[in-house]
Predict the structure of DUF2029 domain-containing protein.
Amino acid sequence: MVKVKKISPAFAGKSNVDHFYKIALIFLYITTGVLFLIWTALILIMLSDKGNIEKSDFLAFYTSGTFVKQNLTKELYNLPLQAEKQNIILGKKLEDPLVFRYLPHVSLFFYIFSGINFYKAFLFFLIINFFTIMLILNLIKKWFVNVTSLRIWFLLPFAYYPIALTMIKGQVSIILTLILLLIYRFHQKRPFLSGALWSIFLIKPQFFIFGLPILYLISKSKKYFVGGVLLFCGIWMSIGIFLVGLNSLINYPSYTLYKEGIIYESYNEWNTNLNLSTVLTPIINRTGGGLKQILSIEAAIYILLLMFITRKINKIPFESQFIAFTIITLVMSFHSYPYDYALVLLPLVIILNMAIKNKNPGNIFLLMLMIILPNTLIKNSTFASVLIMFIIGLSYIFVSTHKSNLKTTPLNVK
């Protein structure tokens, strides 16, 4: 008589998990491959048309560089002069000129492009973005060893819509993603350097402001982190005063938040922004409320989040802290477009690293959902995209207290 060997429930359970994990990986391979082809084709199609290049945000950056070259930085925020310069650059009159909304020192970074033709400058910046992605991939390979066991891991950035859109729009989000990766690397053991790197996010003041308190709370050595932030912010501000003068710098918040509308656009263009206003605006509008009510609710939510993080910070693994920090910063900011979500590439990598290490199919499916979400090409999807992303960000604060399930490979910073 043949004896049948019994399979323990624990072994059977593990076998089922492995089975689902393999299925999840197959879906991830398919999703990544298909999206890579779609977004690569989109980049090639969009940038083959000069009209799309002329409408890109790079025009505003390039214009600021010409102000530096022509020693006109005192007029950097002169809107009619910005429009005039853009008409000269493109050789035609623009109906809707692109406004330069950034701090004065940002114009220095684009001075190097001002000596060449606008279209060649855009191509040069596109190449810089591409090599920045290559550098990001190289750092991921060194710092997230589990990720590289996935054969197509290097396609992940190119399968992510915000990265493709950043390249099409001539935006700086890919460069900021590299900075965010470096902050993740150094935040725990080199807080001063982390603070110095965070000061670079002044290029997007809304992210700098909303991210700073959370980054401060998750810092182990807060005084060194604050020291790095203050020193380098002081340097950037000093450069700004030199370029445009003290009065222009003092008036900058009014110029960028209200006159030209980061807050205004967040409220009036809620269907193209990917922030909390996208969720709140249609609801508040139905109740007869307006911008003040939306801002009050957002402020209350943000303060409550900071209070909760302060109380629970020691129970949340650093990886989860950083995932939540990145997503919450984007969602809470007044001005978050799809290309800004390029920053979520880092949380995607962290989640993938955890998923492969623990063979967690749930994290793989979560990863695929996050890859697909920040996509305004899907009609009327912004409300759901923001709401789901916000819930995911919150879950890494409220749910991720089980450290053994969430730890990634240690970074071993020397």
User: Anything to note?
Assistant: The chain has 21 helices and no strands. Residues 402-414 have pLDDT under 50 and may be disordered. The first helix runs from residue 9 to 47. Residues 125-406 form one domain.
